[in-house]
Amino acid sequence: MTATTLQPSFTHQFIERNSRRVVTEKPIGDRCVQFLYNHLRESAPAMFRVLTSARTSSLLAFCHYDLPSNARRNGKYLFEGIGADWGECVESLSHFDSHRKVFERQIRYWETRPMQTVSATVLAPADSRILIGSLTATSALFIKNKVFDAEELLGKTCPWREKFIDGDFAVFRLTPDKYHYNHLPVSGQVLDIYGVDGQYHSCNPSALIAMASLYAKNRRIVTIIDTDVEGGSQVGLVAMVEIVALMIGDIAEAYSEEYYHNPSPLRPGMFVARGCPKSLFRPGSSTDVLFFEAGRITFAEDLVGNSRRHDVLSRYSNGFGKPLVETDVLVRSTIAVRTTGKTKNSIYEENL
Predict the structure, then answer these.
(1) How big is the chain by its Cα radius of gyration, in Å?
(2) How confident is the model at residue 68 (pLDDT cuts 50, 70, 90)?
(3) CA–CA separation, 222 vs 155, rounded Å?
């Protein structure tokens, strides 16, 4: 579908990072999301709350991912239906006899998603579409309170919130066709990991624009990592927020230092390595958000340039009144580098 077949206000495009090609996206269930967030939310708020509840979300996931498949639902058919590549998977094609297995697939990321060996680089945590920004009004990327309220997103009791004042952030939007394991963007010591309860809203761009601070209303897992330790990435404190969405009822912690072997949950005090699997989103769509301390990282030039393009029809640009364009990135690809300067003391050591 081309941009000319849609009204500009409903068109959403992104940029493929490697090819630099502009792609028009038609989000799955777009008409339903438009109705839910632009009509039903105001005209029938009680029904809106029911439809974004955990029970309804679980029911939708069961109907779409767990009901028995018919004979046509073989692995090849399922992968072709969403446009995913089964050839990069760990399991053989015969393994994939359900939508859930395709969604929760493991890939040979060590071959198909190579990463830079330089530790002072920040990696994309997921196959996703990235939107970058800053929390300081002096930055050209300033979009504070447009996409979310950072303090609310991290949780009102989070003791680390002030560390990210005037810092930078990156939003990673996963669509249902994507590989749904999250990988660690940095190396460092886990200071804290905790959950924040919430609803199960869609991560469709239209829903985000319709509801201010939408991400802060969804259930999420927050992980705080101190990278200023021996063997760390030396980019300061990093907050990784994994946000559930419509049809996702769980985020399974599954940290593995080698391939997907011996998965385990993270715990405070644990050293984690960049590029390793961290967790798995259950079926649906979902989002990751990274927060960085002020002045510690510099985003890749191509991502900054793409985000400011005026020739790409992005719903974020239309909704927020300034160029805000996503770039499609691969998990473990470099999105930022360490800003040269004096390294801060380890927060973990200061709080022992």
Answers:
(1) 20
(2) low
(3) 9
Which H/E stretch holds residue 223? strand 220-226
Record the pTM. Answer: 0.80
Report which secondary-structure segment, H or E, holds 123.
Answer: strand 121-123
Residue 306 has pLDDT above 50, yes or no: yes
Cβ-proximal residues to 94 (8 Å cutoff; 6+ apart), any chain: 75
Q: Which of 12-21, 60-69, 138-147, 342-351 has the highest mean pLDDT?
A: 12-21
129 Rama class: left (phi>0) / alpha (psi -120 to 50) / beta: beta
CB atoms near residue 9 (< 10 Å):
11
List the chain domain ranges.
115-345
**DSSP per residue over 288-332, as a string?**
EEEEE-TTSEEE-HHHHHHHT-SSS--HHHHHHTS---EEEE-TT
| Spatial separation of the C-alpha atoms in residues 338 and 103, rounded to whole Å | 33
Q: 111: burial class by Cβ within 10 Å (0-12, 13-18, 19+)?
A: exposed
